[in-house]
Amino acid sequence: MKEIQISTEYIALGPFLKLSDCISTGGQAKFFLLETKVLINGEVDQRRGRKIYVGDKVDVEGHGKFVIVGS
């Protein structure tokens, strides 16, 4: 499981995908989420604005599993 470090209270799913190198630009998030299964704490979620907090676990199909850690 890869750790993704954030220095804020939360990160939205769209920016998380870019930070975790699942996508190369933020503009790709909408289309990426239409084609790729993303689980946040075991629940499917496709909303770019979904808030992800420290301790949350994200599983991106084909890209791996991530856990959010604080700085």
User: Per CATH, what is the topology?
Assistant: Structural Genomics Hypothetical 15.5 Kd Protein In mrcA-pckA Intergenic Region, Chain A
Task: Tell me what portion of residues adopts beta-strand conformation.
Answer: 35-45%
Structural class, please? Answer: alpha+beta
Distance between the termini: 17 Å
Q: What's the rounded overall pLDDT mean?
A: 95
Contiguous low-pLDDT stretches (5 residues minimum) are none
The rough form would be described as globular
- CATH top level label: Alpha Beta
Proportion of residues in helical segments? 10-25%
**Major sheet characteristics:** 5 strands, mixed
The CATH architecture term is Roll
Gyration radius, to the nearest Å? Answer: 11 Å
Count of DSSP H/I helices? 2
Q: How many domains?
A: 1
In short:
The chain is of the alpha+beta class and 71 residues long. It contains two helices and seven strands. The chain has a single domain, classed as Structural Genomics Hypothetical 15.5 Kd Protein In mrcA-pckA Intergenic Region, Chain A (Roll), CATH 3.10.290.
Can you tell me about this structure?
The chain has 71 residues and is α+β, with helices and mostly antiparallel strands. The protein has one domain (2-70): Structural Genomics Hypothetical 15.5 Kd Protein In mrcA-pckA Intergenic Region, Chain A (Roll). The chain is 20% helix and 38% strand. It has helices at 13-19, 29-35; strands at 2-6, 10-12, 38-40, 43-44, 51-53, 57-60, 64-70. Strands 1-7-6-3-4 form a 5-stranded mixed β-sheet, with no helix packed on it. The longest helix is centred in the first third of the chain and has 7 residues, at 13-19. The protein is globular.
